[in-house]
Write a structure and sequence with these properties.
This protein has 8 helices and 14 strands. It is of the alpha+beta class and 260 residues long. A hairpin with an 8-residue loop joins strand 1 and strand 2.
Length: 260
């Protein structure tokens, strides 16, 4: 089976495992835990664990020699040439709040570089897919090509970040300087922000301290749609860190200079 086709198999399995828990009272049934109990709130649900377990089982069946890096379970074979990078629910806070801006992130890294990726939103029925050369969205059986939009200046740009409080003191100053220059800034949509950038509705996404499973699946989608995504210093974003994505490559160069 081709890897790009296998994304759909994994997306189906994760969706079937996760969607029954959406907009239910998991906290009342003991199906919601806090990974940072006592110091903060980092929720993980039975849906997160079920979704990742379903995908891991299929990878083990079809590609037993591939590695797996996931958010909820131990990593395996990370030194393999082919590694799957999984986040069963990116945006768990949105998920438990009933907001449909979370997504299943399924990425594949080949020889250290992002190769193919998919963001699945089971509730809306959307799938954003990319292979670094092209990107598309699937919904209701219809395939639509994804294309970022031109935006050469910060003054006309729309900027997304998950939460400005997630930046460190040092990175917050640089982010705030950019935020003051853009036309519109919005918060709180996690992986959906990157999907909207690839779709041509958003111009910039800036994040800090991302993990590999937060970003690897989104790289082929952004690049396949004509955008750029790097670390703040212009490096390979597949391992996470401080990340900036732009729909317009010329704008991306401006941002790298500002963030350096």
């Amino acid at each position: 089976m081709e890897l790009i086709d296998f994304l759909d198999v994994l997306g189906d399995a994760a969706s079937d495992a996760i969607l029954p828990y959406f907009r239910t009272r998991m906290d009342e049934r003991g199906e919601l835990d806090n990974k940072e109990a006592g110091t903060g709130f980092d929720p993980v649900t039975i849906a997160d664990k079920a979704g990742e377990a379903a995908m891991r089982a299929l990878i083990g069946e079809h590609f037993p020699n591939h590695g797996i890096l996931g958010e909820e379970y131990d990593n395996v074979r990370l030194d393999a040439d082919n590694v799957w990078i999984l986040d069963p629910i990116d945006g768990t806070r949105a998920f438990i709040s009933g907001l449909p801006v979370w997504g299943v992130l399924i990425g594949h890294k080949q020889n250290g570089k992002a190769h193919v990726g998919m963001m699945v939103q089971p509730f809306t029925g959307e799938r954003f897919v990319g292979n670094c050369h092209s990107a598309w969205m699937m919904r209701a059986g219809e395939k639509t090509a994804l294309k970022t939009r031109a935006c050469a200046s910060l003054e006309t740009a729309t900027l997304f970040t998950t939460d400005p409080d997630l930046f460190s003191d040092k990175t917050a100053q640089k982010y705030q300087a950019i935020e003051k220059q853009v036309r519109l800034n919005r918060y709180g949509v996690d992986c959906y922000a990157f999907a909207m950038l690839a779709s041509g509705h958003v111009d910039i996404v800036i994040e800090d301290d991302l993990k590999p499973f937060d970003i690897a699946a989104l790289i082929p989608i952004i690049e396949g749609a004509g955008g750029r995504i790097t670390t703040w210093d212009g490096g390979n974003p597949v391992d996470g860190g401080a990340i900036v994505a732009s729909g317009d490559p010329a704008l991306h160069e401006q941002l790298l200079k500002a963030l350096a």
